[in-house]
Protein 1
Amino acid sequence: MPVNATETPNLSLLRFGAPIKSGAAPSLASATYKSRLLQLFETLNAGWTGYHGHPWVPAYSAVLADVAGLHSLRLAVLDPPGSILLESSFEGDQAAHLESLRTALGPLLDVVFCNAEAYAGTRDRTGDQFAAWVSSLQPGAALGAAAATAAELTCLAPSVGSAASVASPDAFAFAVHSAADLERLSNLYVSDDDRTILRRAARCLLATLPAQLEAKANDADQAVKDRFAEVIAWFQGTAPASEPIVCPAMAGASAAGSSNIQVNGKKLVMQVLTDIEDNYSNSGYLDRMAGSFGRIYLGLDRTDPNYALQSSASNRAIGTITEQDAFAQAINATRDALRAPGASFDIKDISDKVLAALCTYWFDIPDGNSVISSGSVLPFPPARCPGHFAPPSGYIFQPEPGWAMKLVGELDGRILRSHVADFVAAQRRAGIPPNGVLSKALFAAFPKSPDDDDLLTRTLIGVMIGFLPTVQGNLVAAMAAWKGAMLDSMRHDFLSHPEKDIYERASQVIRGPLMAAMQQAPVPPAVWRTAVKAHDLGDNPIVHVKPGDRLFVNIDSATREDLGKNIADVSPVFGGDRSLNPHPTHACPGFWMGMGVLLGIIAGTLEAAPTLAPMTASRASAVF
């Protein structure tokens, strides 16, 4: 077996590396496979060494005790060269040890190595197949002296005293907290396979939690159970949402009794979004909005007369901003941000500053008083732009947001509502129209004060929520996917291109790779609708949709299908093409505005990048 296995008296070392997948991971947080690994390792380290500063109470059960002859296990993210390293020291036969790793630690290995190339998992592999996969990998020694450890997880085989720690009075609360930490990663593990892998890993690592949940019945423990009810339901697999019906691309398949329907493939995705027969409703968004920044037209259907009344002015105004105008504003704002003292090539920091400046130009927010410029999502006043706009977006539009997204999405939304209301009140007192083309249009659309002030506040927030997270999420995902040789090549092509007009040059050099990156890993990857009529969806086989069924509209399946056919179309990322007739009701009128901002920020960073430090990898997924 061509793995690196060194022997000392009574102790052998197994060491191999697997290359990390390139590009963006299917997630709700604009993550690459590497950044997803880094967050996974951070979470696993907290649970393995003890919960939040309490090393005498490790949250995870002694799963390592079941691995034959194990002395220690080390997992690491190496960058360069971009690999996952496994290193285990053990006594006894190597083949038996490898098989024991597969059977005892399969769920842990799966949640780590599903981020590696050509890994099919331990659950569906025989021992010989798993050994063959290991044999196909680089020996650890071949990774080279230049390999740098970006993150690592080191676990010692449990000692005799570990059982007493797990049984301590605080172990139950710490185990539930650790389950919550693992559940929070569900925003990074969103495909059906990935969700199963993450939950299996949680059950493996927290193997004692089911018995603890059964045994704990006193008031204090019940309070913990009540507080973390959603997390516990996720861990136990008893959450209200049932296993989904799956409609594969260009086809469909049903699972009787399920209330969730996964809609995949360009044809079905656009059929649901366009909804010619009014089979679906956006009204589910309204309940989530109500607990956050308040209800607006994004939760209304075209059959509701209030939709046209509330949306027409903003849609018209947004549609007047051309791609070229948005590009000019964005590239100038990017140049300003990069001229600031201490500027570094961290695309999240750059885009925080640029998007705040653009929002001030178009919306008069942030104004530096009621709302400040900041990328922080932490739910504390004052209101922050763009930071506080991302969690409400994720909470409202993600089909199944986790409890943490729900909590922060509601809190940030309430902060925005309070502080943007202060901005509106100050503007009304001033008695003059705001400067921004979009804020001016909205103030004119809702002229009555104080009667219209709250609706105006909510609409301002909602329009900005439709703009900011989509642009920043796709920007961060694209730049993370290009990091390295591809980004260097794009920079060279952009700087050496003979076109003098910088917008035309950006269009020729950047547009193609940008659209491909957006198609590969779109943000958002999915939205959802609620069925209001009984009807059939798909044709091979037919899915019988019932009123009340939820449809998870997987935008990424549509864009990846097009990408595989060399069709350059990112309109599904924006909810559809508003220029078509008919078009989806909620197709974004700011398609060209958004694309212009993306092209402008990327052009500005490519223009200046040779003078900047490398992007911080750990920030690549910090949008949501």
Protein 2
Amino acid sequence: MPIENNMGPGGVDAAYGKRTTLPTRSYDTTKRYGDTFREDGDGPVNSIVKEAESGFVGIGTDSPVGTLNLSGTSADPAELIFTRSDGAVGSKNWYQRVEGNHRFALGRANDSGTVSNEYVTVATDGKVGIGVVSPNRALTIGDSGVIGINNTGNTVQSTIQMAAGGLEVYTPGAQSIVLGTNSSERLRIDSAGNVGVGMVPGQKLDVSGGARANWFGMNVAATPSGLGTGIAAPVSDTLGFYTNTTERVRIDSSGRVGVNVTPSSWGSSFKSLEVGATGNGIGCNVSGANTFLTNNLYSDGTNWRYNRSNASTLYEQSLGWHSWHVVGSGTADTVAYPTAAMVLNNTGNLGVGTASPSASYRIHAQSTGVNQVASQGTTDAAFINNVNGTQALYMHSTASMSEINELRAVPLNIVVNGATRATFDANGNLLRGTTTNPFGGDQAGYVNSNGTQTATWGVSATYGGSFIGSYSNHSFGILTNNTTRLTISAAGDILSTGGGLGYGTGSGGTVTQATSKSTAVTLNKPSGKITMNNAALAAGATVQFQLINSLITADDLLVVNRTGSGTNLAYQIWTEATAAGSAYINVKNVSAGSLSEAIVINFAIIKGATS
């Protein structure tokens, strides 16, 4: 139990400035000793206690736990109020206090010390509120929520505030807002409102590096200012792609695409792609199964129309069918009527001039006199029909042969540059320069005529079988190396122009007598060499031997002569008794002495006739 000593009057309450009772000194076995100041009739709650041992001062508590310990209740919280020293009326006083819910508050009080505004609150969980009594974040700013940030000289102030429309950040003048990470600038908003990511902006948005977005929209800008390469909306609900400040591709509001051209007004059932101002395009019928490749045409959904005033073409694919269409010239945007010029159907039949080919290859007559082509059956064959549909020409091919067959008894003409150059007549003769066979009906062969002269070859009973020659009253020449070597005149004379007349390489042979100069020899060649035996032949003596040759007939002429072998001018040689299959050759020694020489004799057969 402490013992109190009154020291006399003069004590002052530090919280409210009221006069107190005499100072009282207390002694306690725990505190050892200390000073206590209290109001008249009040207990320790409103007293000031200073502990002698710790030096702690307690206001409203007998047991201060800190250098200065203010204690209160929820009904009468402890407050620390700062006032002006002159006590002027109307001045604002600052206070600090701990509220009943253990939160710390900083605010202003009126002249009587009553709380008028609470500005800063620190909740029991450490959250701080400015203008907010119950902060729900680490720092919560209430009221107008404006934060001002000054530069070093306090000449420029930027603000951050939460307005009705959201969070607002402002600079007071032509300054930029910069955000960065890792001590480097990452984003800048310049004074004109341009945004640069990784770069100083020159447009509303400039990005250095890649960008990704779920979507973004555009306002209409018919001539995007400063756009070199990029995307813009040249008209409402369109998308334009630009390079070198020029629009290159446009996608209109219906999804139609134009490359270097504004896409035409294809019908809503089509998705189209057009390339260039000439109207080349691709149209896909999304409600059907058609794909179109067009030149100078587009579809409004019902009719084909010209892109510009000119002729047009159209290619169509549909469920395995391919169609090629043509259309004459017309006026831009007027209705066009394409005509199927060629069709390949889904079974592989190809038709020209018909939209429904019934054969593998069929050409339909467009006018009288124009034939048709059609392929029939399962073999590689085609028929060319006449204008009445009757098969006229048959073309066929197998692994081993090809065939062109005129099915009627009429000539087959080959025409070049509008003129008949060759004709196969009904008998199979090949006629060139003429369509009439001058040899009559029994000739089968080739005729070549320049109008006045006719050369021919073939087979004819009239002319004794196979033949080659000139039909007109002109000579017939044989040429080599573009030079006439042999000529048969109109009278039948055979004339050489300087070359030799005889047998060529491969027509000759050789043979040697076996035992004596009279031994027979056999050589079945039209020409050759005979080497005689070297037996002695007395002066003036004659020897005869037989040449057996299956080519010799009784009407032929056998020509013989000695080559350079043996003694010059010592022999006389002749033939006789020419018969079918053989002839005799005589050799006489006309020298003054006996000769034992193996002379060599050349021979050649010249065919003869008696009728």
Protein 3
Amino acid sequence: MAGRSDSKMVQKAAPLSIQERQLTVTRYLRASTRAAEQMALIFDLDGLLEKVATTLVDDFDAVLARVWLYEPETRALRLTAGAGISNQKLDALHAQIDVASYPHPAGEAARTLRPVVQNALAGDSPLPEWARHAGIVSLAAFPLVIGRTLRGVLAFFSRQTLYDEVMEALANFAAIVTAAVSDIDQLERERAAREELERKEQALRETEERFRIMADSAPVLLWMSDTEGSCTFLNEGWLKFTGRAMEQEMGDGWKESIHPEDLKFVIDTYRQALQTRQGYQIEYRLRRADGGYRWLFSSAAPRFLPDGQFAGFIGSCVDITERKETEEAQLRTQREIESLNARLQRAMTETHHRVKNSLQIVAAMVDMQRMEEDNALRAESLKQLGMHIHTLAVVHDILTEQAKQDGLAHSVSAQAVLERLLPALQNMAGARPIRFSLADAHLSSQQGTSLALVANELVNNALKYGQGAVEVHLSVQDHHALLKVRDHGPGFPPDFDSRQAANTGLELVQNLVRSDLSGQIQFANQPEGGACVTVSFPIKS
């Protein structure tokens, strides 16, 4: 910090006459004018304050001049510039002043925001050695207030009494200093604002450049529009796809590449989105550079500025032509399958009628042969054969009905098969009743057919060899089916051997149970009388 120092003891000056005061004030005012012109050319705050301090010493007869700046964070005055007498101890004493507690007039001026003057210092209290040595008799402190905010304090130490007219001249200089400090603060704020604006503009340019690089590198078509719906940006992918220049696509030019059949739909959707400011997703065809049209999936979202103002839309488009072609091919295949299924069902219906009619003819022929045959055994065999044919026809009916409903005939309901078969057996039983209790199970078509033939044969045997009512019971547990057929006759003879009882039709039953049903069969007599045949087998999906 620059300053001038005197090493000799200086006596205080004699009081000024009125004429001398007037001359002093005139000289101070001229000095203020010159200083104002010089300070207008200084644009850094430290340089300005140094000029203020030296001007007070050179032109205002100050023995010592000090300028402090106020730091709101610490509520202290920091010594920024000084001139006049100076030494290390004095500089350290004035380096920082606590505004709240420092008794120095500079602290009082900072607290009250008013000028403070002290004359006849030697008479008020003992002067410090440095002040007595310099002959200082008065002190004035002027707060530098901009608006209502303390910016700093200017202090003036003098060997002359500071009369009112002199204080007015010093106050005028302090006002000029305050205005100069305010101008530099304003310049600093403007410079900081310009730098911030430049930084933001640079950041914006870098962001836009990064966005363009990312957009041009993206494997999709990107676009942006303004609030009126006019296109403002298209990435390199879009331009390469359409083979058109950016200038051609700007505004409404991008619409020229949309397929005529899709144009109205795209425009209507876009206009609706602009009104509601909501995103949307659509599919449409866009003309490629080679002249062919490609299907695009377009997804758009609204853009908003930081203040919430609507700024337009940003969107992306992905080529989905292959997907659309696959979907169309699948749809054609599905239609062909549906058509084929319909033809198959019609053919199956016709086949069913032909098979059913053929089976009925076979059964009728067997019945006619049986009526004409005198041999009782052969007539019985033909009767069984006719019943077997009828059983096959029952299963065939059910499978055909299922195929008509769902196009499948891989499984059959055991309950449905037996419910249709047993009434026919009842007609053959005459007065003997047939009672049945049937649970349901879905069997394969082979198992359903075999179960029907087994039940038919067992009921026939019960009617032929047993007495009283015939009971048929079907139960299901843990993926296993259990069929029981019993009567109330004398039961099986003690020496009954199912392997040698072929003449009873049991050979067919045993073959069906073991081969087709993968099950087991048991022949037993009931404690209360009558025979009981039990067939168990696993249910196949």
Protein 4
Amino acid sequence: MHCASIKMYIMSKLTIAGFFARNNGLAITISILFFVFFAQYGLSYLFHHPDEIHYTNAVTTMLESGDYMTPTYSDGSFRFIKPIITYWSILISYLIFGISEFSSKLPSLLSASAFLYFIFWQVKILYPKSKIAILAMLIVATNPLYIQCSSRNLPDIWLCIFLTMVGFASLRLLMNKGKTSRSTAMFYIGASMAVAAKGLPGVAYALAGIVFMLLNPVNRIKIRPLLSPFWIIVALFIASFWYVTMYLKHGDMALIAFVDDQVNVRVGNTLFEYFKGIGLSLLFLFAYFLPWIFQTKSVFKLKIKSHPSTDVLFILLWIGLTLFFCMVVSPVYDRYILPAIPMAALLLSRLIDEHKSEKGVKRTASVIKITFGISILISLFAMWLFSAGVLVYIILLVMVIFNILIIYKCPIYIQSSLQFVSLFAIMLLSLSLYIFPHQGNQIAEYLKKEDITVVGVYRNAKVAAKLRVNTHGVIKINELDSIESGKIIIREREYDKLAQQPAIADTISYSWKGFPLKEMITNRVNGNLQDLKKEYSDKYYLINRK
């Protein structure tokens, strides 16, 4: 009888229900599914940001020159305005997996996925008796800004990860949670890596954390845990290594360019810009936490004035510091609030846990379920319209099965969050079918087929950067500001502006320029959707100037 009971217990733990019942198993699953759900959008350049071309261009040049320390623009001029971490992350991926779209996005996406589990782990240490660890992780995983930045090879996601390490280490020291030596190590490593990823923000957040820990009015700590000579030396080495190397190699021009970008170019000059910055950043912060913010009765229920809490005060300081930077920077972009997202998610998870709005939770869950069902139908229609492959149907099936599991196995407030991120993923799935294959895919395939080894791109740095990645670095891509001799890729609207138009050798790329739905359906039924795409498309030509 005893053995039978043990066997039943073990089998229950091996079932899907038993796995999901344990928060650790759910946390691992969410991290994996985050990667699976959003890996596809890196391939379609759905979240592509114009600044990404600077990093992929620089890394392909590093591979060609063998100089892994000095970033450059596509024309060969030095690019000192951003530190080295982002370049190195892409470089390592290229060295292991080769040059491709996926290997360009892999470092940031893989790190963002693993970081979700890190958030769960740290919140579990801070609040071991609470159930908010999985909730805080889910709030970050369902945040649209975090999702976007995870698929971009930009410094933003790295800054968020390393600064959040500083934030969690500060909270651990303040709340006396976990081993002090590990918290100190995490603080200094996070701060130094943040400096190596984005520069001065890493210094600012680390100093703010130290000042708060030593001087806050509620629960000050002694300075001794922070006085670790070993970790201070390690942090100074990591933080200064690239900057010192660039100074020794290229002189003060490297530091001048970096400081000019970090301070002079970024800081606003007028009162209007300051008000605009704080207004937009508050709007972004509110919008990116939907629908979570409706699941708590009030965002002021923690009674900060009457019962101050050290962790809440620190989190508010962290969010306030982020908003301050957004206020003084001009122009302000939504990604600038990313460092506040994990800490704000921790605060919001506490609010939901302590002051949950049952009506808000149920209404949110109902709306998301209805919207999710509609999005499934839209996605199936898009998959039929654009003749999606088997892999796309498999991805959609995984999402549906995942949602069925969470409906039956998770609390209602967690159901709505997971369904929200699934809804977001499915909507993006439909959109990616519309834009894929993009110009880089189509043109690269043509160049390989025609065995073209050198080609110029006329006044389109974005397409040139895509081609360097899509051709895996084996085709020489030159950026041109004038029509020269040789084979040249030119966009249709640029070609129409030319006073003397060379003969078009071939049309090598078609991308949808509009969405003529009625004509799309008619042509899809008749089997000639590609003919319609050629009519409603943004074209790229190949000309051969002799």
